[in-house]
Specification:
There is one protein chain. By secondary structure, this protein is α+β, with helices and mostly antiparallel strands. The protein has 5 helices and 5 strands. A hairpin with an 8-residue loop joins strand 3 and strand 4. The strands form 2 sheets. The chain has a 3-stranded antiparallel beta sheet, covered by helices on one side. A two-stranded parallel ribbon has the order 1-5.
Length: 137
């Protein structure tokens, strides 16, 4: 469907995976907690039959469809990663003369400006906060 290969960071980029890959998700009506609470499907490249999968959450159902399509994704605990990034950003800001400006931009998601103005900032301030972050080599 999309020409450019992209590792979706789920659940942070769930909306992007739905839009770009044209995946639909709906509740199944099953009893909650049975592991098949949500149904995700997509008609891939004009197929007559949809590619579909179930999951306990919308994110899990979409991840299962992406697997069937051979699309890369990374499944993360967004709360844990965002928390770690926030702690790293605060620590860096406390040790920097322009710390409040750094935090303001970090909070607004202006990560390109941060990389430009504070190249010495540790990678941890981006992991989980910036959905486009690629790990340093």
């Amino acid at each position: 469907m999309n020409a450019q290969q992209h590792d979706y960071v789920l659940p942070l980029e769930l909306h992007q995976a739905l839009a770009v890959e044209r995946i639909s998700v709906s509740p199944t009506g099953e009893q909650p907690g049975q592991g098949a609470d949500f149904y995700a499907f997509v008609f891939d490249r004009g197929q007559e039959e949809p590619v579909n999968a179930f999951g306990g959450t919308p994110t899990e159902a979409v991840a299962n469809v992406l697997t069937l399509l051979g699309k890369p994704y990374v499944l993360i605990d967004a709360d844990e990663l965002n928390s770690d990034a926030a702690v790293a950003a605060i620590q860096f800001a406390l040790d920097n003369d322009e710390g409040m400006e750094f935090l303001r931009l970090w909070n607004q998601g202006d990560f390109d400006v941060l990389r430009s103005n504070w190249p010495e900032a540790p990678e941890e301030v981006y992991i989980g906060a910036d959905p486009l972050h690629k790990p340093y080599k």
